[in-house]
Amino acid sequence: MATVTFRDETATGKPVAELAVDGLPGRMSVRELIRLRVREEVARHKARPRDRFNGLVRPDDAETALNGYRLREPRRIDWERQADMAEQAFLANGYFVLTGDRQIEDLDEQIDLTAAPDLVFIKLVALVGG
Fold this sequence. Notes:
The protein has two helices and ten strands.
């Protein structure tokens, strides 16, 4: 069994957030890992509902805020909808994923979690006027 660490960083490499999940098989696809990450984020939010959600992608009807997304009111978030949006964001280059020193470009690529247990997520921010 493996432990994976999902780490969010800025484009300059500054750590923003970190989430570790253990008890995983030795190999998983990037798609499975993204869906796992999102499911875990939503489960943690569900355990402590607030008006702010810290996750990979913005929930429907939420506003972008510093280090997260502000919900109009605390509510249940559908992890499967969030995971689908996260996959689409990956395909649209809304963020990219690094393992070791290399960028992952395919959702179906298998990652050896025993050799590379850290995944770095870097969200790309659209420039104003660009």
